Amino acid sequence: MNEPLLVSVDDGLAHLTLNRPARLNAFNAEMAFAWERATVNLTSRSDVGAILIDGAGPGFCAGGDVIDMATTMGSPSELEDLAHTIHRGIRALTESSVPVVAAVHGVTAGGGLGVLLSSDYVVAASGARIGSRYANIGLTPDLSVSAQLARAVGTRRALQLVLSDRMLTAEEAQCWGLVAEVVHGEGYAARAHAVARSWLDGAAGAYGEAKRLIRSSCSRSFADQLDEEARTIAASFGTDEARARIAAFLEARSDRAAERH
């Protein structure tokens, strides 16, 4: 049996592939528990500085496996427990200081939209389609869709998605702010990898802390957020990473000044 989730770590980059292509990478119980284990583990590892999420086969993620739910779950409480399991992985990603890029193609719908929203930067193939579609089967949003969608696109647009069966094109999703880049052809995967590598090759610690500051800001008052900004920039100023980059900045500035004279 194929693993429902493929996980690897190479030189600071964790690569997580949703791997149920025959079901458009929809979550069943096995995949849910694998997702929780992998995300909690990767976001707590000191050797992981960025995470790349993608999907095997013809689509990114179609949400929950409705066929599996209907045939294996005997009560609503089982579905609730499974949602909590996946949600722990969602929280691990969004509450961490590890930046996450998603490479999406084909269909992203239902809970797949929640996975997309839990990434910090999305690169989409030009043929990708993104929507909610929970109500099409009489269900309500989960996997953080109700928590994150309106923050990403605004309340009115969020309502347009959850109250209809509309599927956005990749270009529409970019216009709405769900997608950062649209890439034609197969280059979307390489571009997502390049984005993750740029974080690792740059000020990785600062990128991670910047992600954490933005992601966690809604849980603080304005004054508390300013305090957190002050604490974080002071802490970053004392790191070897910042010292080296500030020294390089000052040296380059000195060289430019010398050239002008």
TrEMBL record:
<dbReference type="InterPro" id="IPR018376">
    <property type="entry name" value="Enoyl-CoA_hyd/isom_CS"/>
</dbReference>
<dbReference type="InterPro" id="IPR001753">
    <property type="entry name" value="Enoyl-CoA_hydra/iso"/>
</dbReference>
<protein>
    <submittedName>
        <fullName>Enoyl-CoA hydratase/isomerase family protein</fullName>
    </submittedName>
</protein>
<dbReference type="InterPro" id="IPR029045">
    <property type="entry name" value="ClpP/crotonase-like_dom_sf"/>
</dbReference>
<dbReference type="Pfam" id="PF00378">
    <property type="entry name" value="ECH_1"/>
</dbReference>
<dbReference type="InterPro" id="IPR051683">
    <property type="entry name" value="Enoyl-CoA_Hydratase/Isomerase"/>
</dbReference>
<comment type="similarity">
    <text>Belongs to the enoyl-CoA hydratase/isomerase family.</text>
</comment>
